[in-house]
Amino acid sequence: MIYLDNAATTFPKPRSVYNIWQKAMSVYGANPGRSGHAFSVKTAEAVFRAREICAGFFGGDVENTVFTLNCTTALNFAVKGISRLGCNIIMSDIEHNAVSRPVYAAVKDNSGSCKIFETADDDEQTLKNAERAISENTTALVCTAASNVIGRRNPIAKLGELCREHNICFIVDAAQGAGVLPLKMSQGINILCAAGHKGLYGPMGTGLMITDGKYPLKTIIEGGTGSASESILQPDFMPDRFESGTINTAGVIALGAGVDFVRHKTIDAVYRHEIGLCIKFCREAKKLGNITLYNDINELNYQMYAPVVSFNINGISSSQGAEYLSDNGIFLRAGLHCAPLCHKKIGTIDKGTIRFSPSVFTNENEVGALLKALSRISNHR
Fold first, then answer.
1. Residue 56, Cβ neighbours under 10 Å: how many?
2. Contact, 68 vs 74, CB < 8 A?
3. DSSP string, 139-187
4. Per-residue pLDDT tens for 245-273?
5. Cβ contacts of 56 within 8 Å, gap of 6 or more
6. What's the confidence (pLDDT) of residue 381?
């Protein structure tokens, strides 16, 4: 089996993640923060250590680091939490539905408006397009750190500075960037939302929302938090305000181990390994003569991208191509990747693309096997 669908979920996970998850299921089995007994306190301490690791990784405050079910949940908390009556929210033209759908729902529910700005190969042009989209009633700018379809990186630090200048909330979807790109709250990010199961190498069912506390958020879920239980009102302090109900205790403890793995490996080393495999894939795929690349990553432009490549095999649908590869034990995702805005931009809304996304555990032999399989398709057509 050759797994190359890491933009959806990284696999395998580091051994440390498997080990701590198994330990958490047997050693940290009490409900954290819900009881005063020693077993509960021990579990709560393990959760707090994971929270410290995650907060430190992104340069955030521990108390403002919220564990969520996934990045989508975090983005819903952020987008719907920041929305107000008549608000205007802007986003880029390469957003995942985890951004675009909450944005559209939020502005609809608040009689507001949404504006989409065009991303460009030139970061300065992207910045200008974003600034032109800002109006007097703009509440927030929401954008992905990197496209999950073509890997195109947004100029996060520059967009953060732009938002500071206009006093609007900057929300970053780090689903495709966390663990691969050097993202820090100090880049002007007010709210960072991340998936735990992708580049952070945690289990599925984990995510993060980290805020700087500058912009108060409304809640969209209320319930038991183990704190302020005497009040009918949801707590106004973090992280309890957004952690109603029992969290995925074993999952978040394992997520802490995943983040710690990336921290020790270093983001730079992870990025260099993965982008190097993308460069190799693009270089060799072009030689086959029957492959269309939608983001040609090379030694000159690689800093524009996260390690994700979209392509198609000429003459067949993306789903047919992925099915053939799957039959040969090579697993990639095909279709629209829940990002129709980006597919409209690159002209593939009618057919989607096949997506190649390596991980830190992917090796050159596996990329070579993919290229050989694509060559066989080309030769049989």
1. 15
2. yes
3. EEEEEESB-TTT-BBP-HHHHHHHHHHHT-EEEEE-TTTTTTS---GGG
4. 999 999 999 999 999 999 999 999 999 99
5. none
6. 52
pLDDT of residue 226: 86
Alpha-carbon torsion angle 69, 185, 80, 200, nearest 10: -20
**Amino acid making up residue 4:** L
pLDDT at 30: 86
The answer to whether domain 2-10+266-379 and domain 15-264 are alike in fold is no
What is the β-pairing status of strands 333-335 and 353-356? antiparallel
Q: How many Cα atoms are found within 13 Å in the side-chain-facing hemisphere of 52?
A: 6
Alpha helices in the chain (DSSP H): 15-27, 38-58, 71-82, 97-109, 123-133, 156-166, 249-265, 267-288, 318-327, 340-346, 364-379
Question: CA 291, CA 93: separation in Å to the nearest integer?
Answer: 25
Place of tokens 């809640």: 219
Q: Does domain 2-10+266-379 have CATH number 3.90.1150.10?
A: yes
Note the pLDDT of residue 31: 86
- Predicted local confidence at residue 210, as pLDDT: 98
Task: State how far the Cα of 250 lies from the Cα of 239, in Å rounded to an integer.
Answer: 18
CA gap 313, 167 in Å, rounded = 46
Name the residue ranges covered by the structural domains of the chain: 2-10+266-379, 15-264
How many other C-beta atoms lie within 10 A of the C-beta of residue 365? 9
> How high is the pLDDT of residue 333?
97
106, with CB counted inside 10 A (0-12, 13-18, 19+), is buried
What residues in the chain have per-residue pLDDT under 70? 35, 378-381
Tokens of 188: 């002007």
Q: What is the pLDDT of residues 49-83, one digit of tens each?
A: 999 999 999 999 999 999 999 999 999 999 999 99
CATH architecture designation of domain 15-264: 3-Layer(aba) Sandwich (3.40)
Please enumerate, as own/partner, the contacts of 5-9 that have beta carbons within 8 Å and a separation of 24 or more.
5/331, 5/332, 5/333, 5/355, 5/357, 6/198, 6/357, 6/358, 6/359, 6/362, 7/148, 7/176, 7/198, 7/308, 7/333, 7/337, 7/355, 7/357, 8/198, 8/333, 8/357, 9/197, 9/198, 9/204
